[in-house]
Design brief:
It is built from two helices and no strands. It is mainly α.
């Protein structure tokens, strides 16, 4: 369970930061890229949710002695 929470947290952080980058790429053109903007928003939201769930899972696991 501890490994799952760590992996979920790490993947969530990577997805959120990648989403922010893709969103920035989509908005940097004269004609904004609709696909990049939507994909960026999706990755940011999904990444934040995955990060929060991963952190919540790790807090519920009792510490090993």
């Amino acid at each position: 369970m501890a490994e799952t929470s760590r992996i979920l947290t790490a993947l969530g952080l990577v997805a959120a930061s990648s989403g922010l980058t893709i969103y920035g790429i989509g908005t940097s053109f004269v004609e904004p890229g609709e696909f990049q903007i939507n994909l960026g928003w999706f990755l940011m939201i999904a990444g934040v949710i995955a990060t929060v769930v991963g952190i919540a899972m790790s807090k519920r696991i009792p510490e090993e002695e």
